[in-house]
Amino acid sequence: MNSWHHSALAQGLLRCHDCTALWPLALEEQHCPRCGALLHSREPNSLVRTWALLITSALLMLPANLLPIMRVTMLSSQGDASTIMGGVIELTKHGLWGIAIVVLAASILIPVGKILALGSLLIAIQFGKATNLKQKMVMFRIVHWIGRWSMLDIFVVGILVALVQFGNLAYIVGQTGALAFAGVVVFTMLAANTLDTRLIWDRHLQEASIGSET
Amino acid sequence: MDPKPEHPASDPVRPLIRRHRGPSAVWILPLLAALIAGWLVYKSYSQAGVMIEVVFNSAEGLEVNKTRVIYRGLPSGTVRSLTLNEDLQTVTAEIEINANAQALLHEGTLFWLVKPQISLSGVRGLETLVSGHYIGVRPGEGEIAYRYTAAEEPPPATRDREGLYLTLYADSVASIHRGSPVYYRDIDVGQVLDYRLSGSSDQILVDLFIEPLYAHLVRKHSRFWNAGSLEIKGKLPDIDIRIGSLATIIAGGVHFYTPEPRDNPAAEDGDQFPLFADYEAAEDGVPVQLVFPGSTRLSVGTEVLSQGVRVGRVRDLSLTEDFSELHAELLIDPRARSMLRAGTRFWLAQPGLPSADFSLQELLSGQHIELAPGQGAETFSFHALDEPPARAPVSEGLPIRLSADALGSISRGSPVLFRQLPIGSVTGYELSTNGDRVLIHAVIKERYRHLVGSRSRFWNSSGIEFKADLDEGISVHTGSVQTLLRGGISLFNPRGKQAPLQKAEPEFSLYADYDAATDDGRLLTDNGDELSVRLYAEARGAIAVGVPVLYRGVEVGEVRHYQLAEDGRWVEIRISIQAPYRHLVSTASRFWVDSGVTAKANLRDGVSVQTGSLTQLIRGGIAFETDTGGEKLTKTSRFHLYPSEQASREQVHRILIHFAPGADLAVGAPIRYRGAQVGRIDTIRIADSSGGRIARASLFREAEFLAREGSRFWISEATIRLSGIENPSNLLFGNHVEVLPGDGAPGDTFIALRRAPAYRPQPGLTVELHANQLGSIAVGSPVLYREVPVGRVTGYEINLRGDGVLVYAHIQPSHATLVRRSSRFFNHSGIKARGGLFSGVDVNVASLETLVGGGVSFITEDLDAPGVKERAVFALHDEPKAETPIIQAVSGKNTP
Question: B34–A59: do the CB atoms touch at under 8 Å?
C-alpha cells in the first residue's frame, strides 16, 4: 500500500482549512477549537455547487457571445454594436493578428476551455473515474490559474467606456454582452473554487481500499 | 506515516449523516442563466427579420450588413446581400427587415436609396455622409409582398403628419420642387409635397403641407404666389428684386399672404387655391376696366396713384381688334374702392422733370395712372382722359389761375416761387375757350395762401439770367435748377394794401418777365421806402441796371431801369434812392454821369487824374449833388442827366452870339462875367463872307440871368501896355468873351459888341469925365488921388455930339467916397514941363506909368461936400488948378 492511498479522512481525521490543525472526525460541522473556523472533512455539496455554477457560466456563454459587448458611436451615427467574435474578426480585418489571438484566447478559448475542463473533472468525480488523476490535477491548477485572465475583455470594455466619451463626436457604451461575459468569467472562477479536489482522490482511495480489502 | 496510529482507519469516527432536503440554492444561478439564454433565444427568434428582395438600378452606396432600411428614423432592416441580376441591368439587394417593421411590407410599399444631397436649396440626408447611404421606405397598401423594385426618387412626403394639406392649381409649376418651402412673411411654414397634372392635364396641382403651428394663417381668401427664382421687375423706380432666400432661388418656393380681414374662416384640409405667378399677380384688388386710346403706351404693372398714394396697378392689357382702344384691367386696392365712382377720372400721367418736391421716385417712376375720385355712384368701368385735366383735383391750398400769352417753359409741376421759395406748383394748363390765352392752373400751398393778394403780380421766371459783373464776377442767375429745367412762376406783392381775394379761384395775369411784372420797376420802387427818381439823358452811355447812384462818393441808390422814352429823343432812366437818403434829392439836385475819372490839366497843378474805385471806373455811376433852395420832389419831377459833373453844374443855357469879324475866338473860349466864368463857346461857324461868326455858347445855370435881351458880349483880348498886361491869361489860353447883363426879357440870341463897352457897371463908382481930347489916357490908365491909385480908366468914347471925349473912370469902392461934388479931375499923364528964365525948368512927371499910359487924377478939396451918384459927370481938366492950395502944397513939395 502506497502512502498516498491514505487520506486524513481514512485516518479518521479532519483538517482545519484555516489553521491546518488536525482534529478527529467527531468535530465535523463544529468549530475549530484553535481558530474557530467551521470544520469540514470535505467541502459540503461541493459537487452540486460546482455543477450549478458551471452550468450557469455555460449558459451565460450564449448571451456573452451573441450580445454585443459595446457600442461605438461616432459622429452621431449609430455605430455597430460589436460582439466579442465580431471584434476579433474586425481585428483580423485590420491585420492585427496578435491582438486578435490574445482577445480570442482570453475571451473565447479560455472561458470555453475552463468550462470544458471543469465539466470533465466533475464528470470524472461523479462517475468515479480514477484514471489519470495527476493529469486532472494539473489541468485543474491551470484552469484555476488562468481564470483571472479572462477578465481582460471586461477591463478593455471598462477602460474604453470610461475614456471614450467625446460627446457627439464619439462615445462608447457598454452593452449587456459584457455583463454576461463577466458573469461567465466570475462563475467559472467560483466553480473552480467550490470544487473540492480531494473528492478526486477520495474515489481513488475508495477503489484502492476496496481493491486492497478484496 | 500516520501521525496518530492510535486512531486507525478501521475505527473511524462515523460522521453524522444528515440528508439535505431539496435542491441546493445554488441552482438558482443556472436557472437564471437559463432564463437569460432562453430569453435571448426567444428574442433572437422573435426578432428574426423577414428577408425581402429589392431591385435597385445600381448597388452604388449599398453595403452588405451596413446599409440599413430606415423608416422614420428607425432602423428597420439591413442589407444582407447584393447580387447582380441576370439581365446585368439591375442589382437585387436582399434585405432583412426587422420583425417589428414587417408591417411595412405591402405591395404599395416604396423603397428608395437615400443619398446625401448637397445643393443650394439645402442639404438633405447629411447623416448619410457619415453613416452611409440608407434605404428609405414608405409603407403602402396591398397584400404582403417580399419583392420590390426600388424607386428612383424619394416619393413625396406622406400626409400623415398633423397639419394643413392644401392644393394649389397653377398654369406652370415654375421652379417649385418637392420640398420647396412655403413661406409666410419669409418664415418657413411648410413645404411642397408634390405636384402633378390635374385630371384634365390643363393645370398643375401642387400639394402643400402647412405646419400645424401655422395652419391658422391660411384663410379661405389667402393668396399664394410663386416665390421661385430671381424675380427682377425692371420697372422704375421699383427695380423689384424679390429674393425670398437663396434657397427659393434654386428650389423655388411658395409664398402666401392673407389680406385683411383676417377673420375669414380658416382653410381646411384639401382646400384649393390658385397659385399666382408672382406677388403682383397675387395681389388682391377690385378689378376695374379702363379704356385708353389705342396708341397709349402703357405697360402691365403701371401703378395707379391718387394724390401720390398708390391705390392699384394695371393687371392686364388688351387691345381691341381694330387697335382703336386699349383696355386696361386695373386692380384697385379694396381700401380705395370708395374712389371708384361715376365721375372718377383716370389719366395717364407722364413723368416730367423734377418738380419742387423733387424725388427720385418721381423722376424714375415713369408714367403712372392718376386717379381723381368722383362723387357719383359706384362703378367699375371708366374711360381714361386723353390728357391730364388742367385742373387737377385739389384737396387743400389755394387754386389760382394765371392767364398768359404763351405757355413758355411752364409745365405741370413747375413751382410757384415767392422770394425763390416754392409756395405752390403748377397743376395744369389749358387753352382758353377762344384760344387766345393760355390758362395755367396752379395751387398755392395752404400755409402760403396769405401771400397771394389781389395785387400780386406773377411772372414767368424760367430761364437763365446771365450777368457779368466786376464786383460779383460772372454770375449766372437762375431761379433754381428746377425753374431752369421746368420753368417756374414767381410772384411778388407790390407795396400797398392787398385786397383779400374774392373768388375761390382768383385769376391773375402771367407776365412774361420780371420787368413786365413790375411795370418796369415802377412797382418795385413803390415797394420800398426808396425814392424813385426819373432822369432823362441824351444817351444811355454806360448806365446799366444796377449801376450805383453816388452822393459825394457814397452809394445811396442804384439804377433800376432804363428805357427809351416814347418819342425816342431821350433815354429815360429810373433810379432809386435808398430811404435814408431821400432827403438828399430835391428839385435843385443835379445829376451827372460819374465816369470815375477826373482829369485836370492845369498850369499851376500840372496834370492830375483822379479816379474813383475801379468798379466805378468801369461800371460808371450816376452822381448827384443838391444845391440849396430846392423843393421837395413831386410826382412829375424829372432831371436831366448831364454827361459830367461840370456839365451838371453848368446846366448850360444855350445862346447864340453873332460876332463881328476880328478878334480871335476859339471853341471852348470861356465867357466871363466880372472875372468869373459863366459860360463857354461851344461851336463857332462863319456866318457870312465878311467873316462874321455865329458862336453857339453855353451859359451856365447860375449865369442864366445873362441870357436876357440887352446883355452885351464882346471878345476880350489880352492887351499889353506899358502900364501892364490886361487879361494876361488870354495870352496863353486865347481870348475870352466878356458879358454884361442886360435887363430885358429872356433871350438867347445876341450880337456881340465889336469891342468892350466903355462903361461897365461894376462895384464902386464910375464917373464920366468929359475932356476935349483923350491925350495919353487909355483903358486901364490909373486914377490917382494924391498920387495913390484908387481906380482905373475903364473906357472912353467920343461923346454923342462928337465935340469931346467921354472917359469912364472907375473908382474902387473903398475910395468911392473920395469923389465929391467938389472934386476936380485932371489929366495926369505926360510930362509937364514948364520953363522959365528965372524959375528954371519945372518938370513934373507923375510916374513912369502915367507918363506912358496916361492917368487921371482928382482932388477933392471939400470932403464934406455931397457925394456923387454913379456916372456923375465931371470935367477932365488938363491940369490941376494952380491956386489950389492943397494941390499946390502937394505939387509944390519940392518948393521951399
Answer: yes
Query: Chain-centre distance of CA A6, in angstroms?
Result: 29
pLDDT band at residue B497 using 50, 70 and 90 as cut-offs: low
Q: Are B782 and B792 in contact (CB under 8 A)?
A: yes
Residues in chain B: 896
Residue spans of the domains in chain A: they are 1-41, 45-213
CA distance A10 to chain B (A): 5
DSSP string, A77-138: B--PEE-HHHHHHHHHHTT-HHHHHHHHIIIIIHHHHHHHHHHHHHHHHHTT--TTHHHHHH
Query: Half-sphere exposure of residue B813, counting CA atoms within 13 Å on the CB side?
Result: 4
Q: Indicate which of B10, B16, B18, B29 best probes the interface with A, i.e. most A CBs within 10 Å of its own CB.
A: B29
Determine contact: B75 vs chain A, CB below 8 A: yes
Q: Are B844 and B794 in contact (CB under 8 A)?
A: no
User: Would you call B13 an interface residue with chain A, using a CB distance cutoff of 8 Å?
Assistant: yes
Contacts of A183 in chain B (CB under 8 A): 33
Q: Give the best residue of B24, B26, B28, B43 to mutate against chain A (max A CB count within 10 A).
A: B26
As a whole number of angstroms, the distance between CA B191 and CA B183 comes to: 8
| Alpha-carbon span B842 to B227, nearest angstrom | 149
Q: What is the pTM of this model?
A: 0.37
Long-range contacts of A125-131 (CB under 8 A, 24+ apart): A125/A47, A125/A199, A125/A200, A125/A203, A126/A47, A128/A203, A128/A206, A128/A207, A129/A203, A130/A203, A130/A204, A130/A207
A26 vs chain B: nearest CA distance in angstroms?
Answer: 6
pLDDT score of B233 more than 70: no
For residue B7, pLDDT over 60 is answered with no
B32 Cβ under 8 Å from any chain A Cβ: yes
Contact B7 A74 (CB under 8 A): no
What ranges make up the beta strands (E) of B85-133?
91-97, 110-114, 117-119, 122-124
Return d(Cα B644, Cα B650) in angstroms, integer. Answer: 10
Cβ neighbours of B574 (radius 10 Å): 19
What is the distance between the alpha carbons of residues B442 and B32, in angstroms, rounded to a whole number? 107
For the record, the C-alpha cell of A7 comes out as 487520506
* Shortest Cα distance, chain A CAs vs residue B359, angstroms: 58
| Contact criterion met (CB < 8 Å) for B7 and A24 | yes
Torsion of CA A48, A51, A53, A59, to 10 degrees: -140
Q: Which three cell numbers stand for residue B477?
A: 442767375
Four-CA torsion B136, B137, B138, B139, nearest 10 degrees:
-170
Judge: B36–A24 Cβ closer than 8 Å, yes or no.
no
B546 touches chain A (CB under 8 A): no
Q: Are strands B571-577 and B554-564 parallel, antiparallel or unpaired?
A: antiparallel
Q: Taking CB atoms and an 8 Å cut-off, how many pairs form between chains A and B?
A: 93
How many Cβ atoms are within 10 Å of A126's Cβ, its own excluded?
12
Q: How far is B99 from chain A (nearest CA, A)?
A: 18
* Confidence label for B532 from pLDDT (cuts 50, 70 and 90): confident
| B88 inside 8 A of chain A by CB | no
Probe site for chain B from A56, A69, A209 (most B CB atoms < 10 A) = A56
DSSP lists the bridge partners of residue B598 as: B610
| pLDDT per position as a tens digit, B401-452 | 888 888 777 777 778 888 778 888 888 888 888 888 888 888 888 888 888 8
ipTM, interface predicted TM-score of the complex: 0.72
Residue of chain A with shortest Cα separation from B75: A78
Per-residue pLDDT of B343-362, as tens digits, reads 888 888 766 544 445 455 55
Length of chain A equals: 214
Question: In chain B, which residue's Cα lies nearest the Cα of A40?
Answer: B15
Q: What is the pLDDT of residues B76-93, one digit of tens each?
A: 888 888 888 888 888 898
